[in-house]
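A reminder from the course coordinator: this example appears on the midterm review sheet, so study it carefully.

Given structure:
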């Protein structure tokens, strides 16, 4: 049998500054790409176009007949990618809207069980959902129609239809983008050669050549990200990599994430012990640059050096994180990792009362990279309930105290590093079945 594969994004970078003329030609494509997406958002983002979204060929044909591509002079290899990119955004938006509606329906105590069942049926069956929103008769296939009529006969449908339309109006938002800094590109529009890439532009039979820092070559759809102020570009490449399975990866490991030490395991091993130093240097540098910029704001200082310096510091920090995560997997050989479920990000951004260093904590990046590496190495991750987990004694379960990084229990006298105690509680809760999400290998 063929080995299991997962998608991984690799990056390529331009070598040396991209000339102003070449960047201008690429930005023209990015701007037209943005216009096409906004045109699709405006024309097919409403309830009247729900029936056209799946599988999407109707939208493709209507866009072809519209003459919009000819007006822009945009090559078809970019035009249709922009169309289907926008269609994907619209479908994603409708999926989020339906998820929101399901949550509202489940929480609404005024609805009976039959009414909730009927509304969930409408959300599940696309044709029924489309018909209700557009105030048309619900006409389905014979078998599904019979099921619909049975559910509709037990409730007052018009009242529920009005509720559904009202909630959709509240939840659904109009899509629009002002970003014109990148575009997708198919195999027909590029060619690797001469340790670089030739990219098709709007002029017929013309391409611009961009030297690259590596000589790797790919044959798939790419995404070109432009940085005009820095005179560079980045290529994002989705590649399929084989999942590696290790016979000796059998351990169950509980881990605690930290701001100063990246990972602490239940057996007391630490990984990323210099994370705090790297993050302090990064946050101090950003704070200092913000003060300098604020003092010289009237002189309109440029931000080119700032962005370049920030990128270098982030890459240095991320390189250290990935190195330590690899060391963790190689030494611990986990088959299953237990960790605390992270809280959702605050709406409205970072709390200004939080220490600046904490706001720069890379825990989201650490979590994302750990999940990716675990998928590549066929390691399972289970999230556990985290309420009061750092204040609970891992030995007797009583509430204890934390002082200067040390946990102490007044009931049984147990004392240990607070992160080790937390990691042991994580493993204990995971093995007792208090898991929220468990990823499949």
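Designed residues:
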């Amino acid at each position: 049998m063929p080995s299991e594969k997962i998608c991984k994004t690799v990056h390529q970078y331009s070598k040396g500054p991209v000339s102003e003329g070449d960047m201008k030609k690429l930005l023209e494509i990015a701007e037209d790409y943005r216009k096409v997406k906004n045109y699709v958002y405006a024309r097919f983002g409403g309830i009247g176009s729900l029936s056209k979204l799946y599988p999407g060929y109707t939208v493709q044909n209507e866009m072809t007949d519209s003459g919009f591509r000819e007006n822009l002079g945009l090559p078809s290899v970019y035009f249709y990618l922009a169309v289907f990119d926008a269609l994907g955004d619209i479908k994603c938006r409708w999926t989020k809207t339906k998820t929101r509606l399901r949550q509202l329906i489940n929480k609404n105590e005024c609805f009976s069980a039959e009414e909730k069942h009927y509304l969930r049926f409408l959300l599940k069956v696309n044709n029924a959902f489309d018909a209700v929103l557009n105030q048309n008769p619900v006409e389905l296939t014979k078998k599904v129609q019979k099921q619909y009529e049975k559910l509709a006969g037990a409730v007052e449908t018009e009242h529920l239809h009005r509720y559904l339309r009202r909630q959709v109006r509240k939840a659904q938002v109009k899509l629009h983008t002002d970003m014109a800094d990148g575009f997708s590109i198919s195999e027909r529009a590029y060619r690797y050669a001469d340790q670089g890439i030739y990219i098709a532009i709007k002029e017929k039979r013309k391409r611009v050549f961009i030297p690259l820092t590596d000589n790797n070559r790919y044959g798939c759809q790419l995404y070109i990200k432009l940085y005009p102020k820095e005179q560079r570009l980045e290529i994002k490449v989705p590649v399929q990599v084989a999942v590696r399975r290790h016979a000796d990866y059998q351990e169950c490991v509980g881990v605690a994430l930290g701001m100063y030490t990246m990972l602490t395991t239940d057996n007391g091993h630490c990984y990323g012990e210099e994370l705090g130093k790297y993050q302090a240097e990064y946050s101090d540098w950003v704070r200092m640059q913000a003060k300098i910029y604020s003092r010289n704001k009237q002189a309109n200082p440029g931000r080119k050096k700032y962005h370049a310096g920030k990128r270098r510091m982030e890459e240095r920090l991320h390189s250290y994180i990935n190195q330590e995560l690899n060391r963790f997997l190689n030494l611990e050989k986990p088959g299953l990792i237990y960790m605390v479920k992270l809280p959702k990000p605050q709406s409205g951004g970072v709390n200004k009362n939080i220490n600046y260093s904490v706001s720069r904590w890379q825990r989201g990046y650490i979590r994302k990279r750990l999940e990716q590496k675990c998928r590549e190495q066929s390691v399972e991750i289970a999230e556990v309930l985290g309420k009061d987990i750092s204040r609970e004694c891992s030995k007797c379960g009583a509430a204890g105290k934390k002082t200067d990084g040390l946990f102490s229990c007044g009931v049984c006298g147990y004392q240990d590093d607070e992160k080790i105690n937390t990691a042991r509680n994580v493993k204990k809760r995971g093995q007792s079945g208090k898991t929220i999400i468990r990823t499949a290998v």
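The first helix runs from residue 20 to 44. Confidence is low (pLDDT under 50) at residues 346-359.
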